Amino acid sequence: MRLLRFGFAAALLVPLAGCESLIQIDDGGGGAGGESECGPPPPPNNGPCPPSWHCIDGEWVDTAGACPDPECPANQPSTGESCQKIGQKCSYSIEEPCGSGYSDYVSTCTATGWMTVYNACQPEPTCPKEMPLEGSDCSGWDYPYFCQYDVACLDIISPVSMSCDYATNPPSWHVDSPAVCTGCEIIGDAASCLGTDGCQWLVPGCGEGQQVIEGCYPMNDCLQDGCSGGDICTPYEHNPCWNALCDSCNAPIGFCQSPPPDPG
Question: Do the beta carbons of residue 105 and residue 120 sit within 8 Å?
Answer without folding.
Answer: no
